[in-house]
Amino acid sequence: MATAALFLAFSALCGFAVEGRRYGKNRLATNIIIGAFVMAVIPLISLLYTVTIHGWTRMIQAGFFTHTTFGSSNIDTVVGAGHAIIGTLVITGTAALISVPFGVLTAVYLVEYGRGTFAKIITFLVDVMTGIPSIVAGLFAAALIPIVNQQLFGQAQFKSGFMGAIALVVLMTPLVVRNTQEMLQLVPNELREASYALGVSKAATIVKVVLRTGVSGIVSGIVIATARIIGESAPLLITAGTTDSYNLNMFQGQMLTLPVYVYNEYTKGHQITAWAGALILIGIVLLLNLFARWIAKRFAPAGN
User: What keywords tag this UniProt record (predicted)?
Assistant: First the structure.
């Protein structure tokens, strides 16, 4: 830090002396921006390097993607993360299936129909939900789902994959609403007016003009929101729980996810296995972000 500060001061003085005040300020600002970028990238590269070095050797072992942690106390047992990968995909996919329709329709209402006090209340609640701690979402789902099960089925089922999905829905929905709302507001009003002038109804204009124009940003925002919730561990510890075997029934029994898997393996002292689970999770998030970029480029309006 001291070396960087001395370099900035020295380069600024040389810039002012040789290039003048205007170009000296420009050089100083450029060096500060480059320095901030380097300081932000170095920890990221260090994190990726550390996770890859520690987790790669365990991840490429035979059976890691198919075996479970059942019998992990036995030294001869092959420990895997297959059940955690399946649980992550099932819970996150269910949360996305619930959040996306609610989020997109809410954003359409706020942009195209919402006026007055009710729309302001919804906007305020969305802003509040965007900033709530993830543990609160887990507590909400843990309190709500057993009550619903008790009323509908006569039994209070605790810790299930569906309960974990509901906790993630609470976290994902406001992100989808906010992103979709921003994308719809970027659609020029001239497109709406041109559609109305041709006699197209408001609903058809929203579906065929507004949503179609902003589809690239909406879909990429949904994918990024999915990548945001896939790494949550605190709410899933409370709601989905943990297990040492496969569980494909998200309405019955506990279901393990990768973030909880990493936590469990680390607390057991299996650091290498925890690093491997973290590497898989980073890989899934990376693939989701690449998919979001492809969607944004593939469905972007012509000329952009």
Answer: Cell membrane, Membrane, Phosphate transport, Transmembrane, Transmembrane helix, Transport
**Is the sign of the CA dihedral 129, 131, 132, 137 positive or negative?**
positive
Domain-wise residue ranges, the chain? 2-59, 82-298
* Neighbouring residues of 209: CB distance < 8 A, sequence distance ≥ 6: 187, 191, 192, 195, 200
Q: For residue 224, give Cα distances in angstroms to 1, 164, 167, 218.
A: 34, 19, 18, 10
Q: Compute the distance between CA of residue 99 and CA of residue 3 in angstroms, rounded to an integer.
A: 49
Encoding tokens for residue 195?
A: 């559609």
Instruction: List pLDDT tens digits, range 137-193.
Output: 888 888 877 766 655 555 556 778 888 899 999 999 999 999 999 999 888 888 888
CATH number of 82-298: 1.10.3720.10
For 206, the token pair is 């929203």
| C-alpha to C-alpha distance for 71 and 63, rounded to whole angstroms | 14
Which pLDDT tens digit goes with each residue over 284-300?
888 888 888 887 777 76
Report the distance separating Cα 226 and Cα 97, nearest Å. 10
pLDDT in tens, 221-246: 888 899 889 988 888 888 888 888 88
